[in-house]
Design brief:
The chain is of the alpha+beta class. It contains 5 helices and 21 strands. Helix content is 21%, strand content 47%. The strands form 3 sheets. Strands 4-5-6-7-8-9-10-11-12-13-14-17-18-19-20-21 form a 16-stranded antiparallel beta sheet. It has a 3-stranded mixed beta sheet with strand order 1-3-2, with helices on one face.
Length: 486
């Protein structure tokens, strides 16, 4: 019995060992199968990528020839406006070049602002096995509505306005525009304007703009109202270095006193004048944001010459330069510096409408609007020369209560402003220039900046440190909103 029991136990142990060996072999077999399948998958993926890349390369280098270009959807637009924009598609020799040319042509058509949407289709015009393949390209467009109305608000350095207007688009079939508007300003200003915009050479960036306008604005700090009626022409020139614009203006101006308490100097300016002038403006802007920049520089230079021959009774040469430089420092602190220079040279007494003015929350902070420079009986009468500068250190808030929300628009800044406004006398240019430099005003302070997209709001606490007896200072809190600040 004992021997039988021993034999039974041996058989049981041997069976367990055989089962263990079988499981091990099965595991190894499974691993081999998985490795084999993985190798096949990797190989398929590898060769698949090669096949796809090879197909893409063949498609890019495939020779093609554009047989026809069709334009569908033109109702009012003239074909001679569209054809130069898409003619380069014929020059494509490969499929890759064709895609690039179609993309450029599509952008050109969209920039005309008379089509939306613009779709492009390709169809084979010959056997696909031919070399090169002949293709037909179709541009399918939909013309925008010819009339559009607008109702908007505008914020500028001089005034904020409510604008109501309308536009007739593609007036004669070559992307012309006729625009009319009426604007009401917060500072009792009204402007009526009618503009005709004609693209030259089919290019929107090379448009000649003709404008008829009438405007009325009150200058309370100088106690006069100006009414202007005129016609103007403008033509832009875009270069790699910057943007130029040429202007011609003929404007009939009328100066009216706002009250019986207007100073004698302002009363002398009352009446009518006719100004005919040409102006050249240059602007270069590399800033990352036009209102609240953190890096880049900005340059704007204007020169205006009035009194062309015997046209008009106003003669002067006016120059103005505006510069700004911005740089981001560690800890997201932005250093900003700016400089403005202005000079008005005239044969006789200059008109008050053409002079420079200085002071206020957008220029030399801590002074009232037009509060710096020559005054007569409390009225600001301006000067023919100015310089103004500003230094800023701008930083985010030390805490972020609204991360990703309105709090991201808030920043603090420390500022220092300095400048002066006066007259440079032709009989004593050197002495009057030194007087303009030595007689500077300056102020400093701290404030809160609010970025509003197209404009910026400032709430500052200002400390005027140097002012003249005739200046109008504004110490303490000062509020301003505009597009550009000194």
């Amino acid at each position: 019995m004992a021997e039988e029991e021993t034999t039974g136990k041996g058989s049981s142990m041997q069976g367990a060992e055989n089962e263990k060996r079988g499981a091990t072999r099965l595991t190894k077999l499974t691993d081999c199968i998985m490795y084999f399948l993985s190798s096949i998958s990797s190989a398929l993926h590898y060769f698949g990528v090669i096949i796809i890349k090879s197909a893409e390369q063949q498609l890019k280098n495939k020779k093609i020839k554009v047989h026809n270009i069709n334009i569908d959807g033109l109702r009012v637009t003239r074909t001679d406006l569209v054809q130069p924009k898409i003619h380069n598609v014929f020059e494509a020799a490969t499929f890759e070049e064709l895609v690039k040319e179609m993309y450029l042509s599509k952008n050109y058509l969209e920039d005309l602002d008379i089509f939306h949407p613009v779709n492009v289709f390709i169809d084979a015009a010959s056997d696909k096995k031919a070399d090169p393949i002949e293709l037909d390209v179709t541009f399918r467009v939909r013309e925008l509505s010819r009339f559009s109305a607008q109702f908007k608000t505008e914020v500028g350095n001089q005034d904020s306005r409510l604008v109501i207007g309308g536009k007739l688009r593609n007036l004669f079939g070559r992307a012309e525009e006729l625009m009319g508007s009426i604007a009401y300003g917060a500072k009792k200003s009204t402007t009526l304007q009618l503009s005709f915009i004609k693209p030259l050479f089919g290019d929107k960036e090379k448009s000649l703009t003709s404008t008829l306008y009438q405007g009325t604005i009150d200058f309370v700090q100088s106690s006069f109202k100006e009414i202007s009626r005129g016609i103007g022409f403008q033509y832009p020139i875009i270069t790699e270095f910057g943007a130029h614009s040429l202007h011609f203006d003929s404007v009939w101006r009328e100066i009216q006193c706002l009250s019986d308490r207007s100073s004698w100097a302002v009363r002398e300016e009352s009446g009518h004048s006719l100004k005919c002038s040409i102006k050249h403006a240059f602007m270069r802007d590399t800033r990352d944001h036009s209102v609240s920049p953190t890096t880049g520089h900005f340059i704007r230079f204007e020169q205006e010459h009035a009194g062309l021959g015997s046209l008009g009774d106003t003669k002067f040469h006016r120059f103005f330069l505006e510069c700004q430089y911005n740089k981001t420092l560690p800890y997201n602190i932005v250093f900003s510096s700016s400089l403005n220079l202005g000079l008005l040279a005239s044969d006789g007494q200059s008109k008050i409408s053409d002079r420079f003015f200085l002071g206020g929350p957008l220029s030399i902070r801590g002074f009232q609007m037009r509060g710096i420079g020559p005054h007569s009986e409390g009225d600001s009468i301006g000067g023919n020369a100015l310089w103004a500068s500003g230094l800023h250190l701008i930083s985010p808030l030390p805490f972020k209560p609204l991360q990703g929300g309105f709090g991201e628009r808030l920043r603090t800044h420390l500022f220092v402003n300095a400048g002066n406004l006066g007259h440079i006398r032709s009989s004593a240019i050197r002495d009057s220039t030194e007087e303009l430099i030595r007689g500077y005003r300056w102020s400093y302070g701290i404030g809160l900046l609010v970025k509003l997209g197209v404009a910026q709001l400032e709430l500052n606490y200002c400390v005027p440190c140097r002012a003249h007896a005739t200046d109008r200072i504004s110490p303490g809190f000062q509020f301003g909103v505009g597009l550009s600040f000194l």
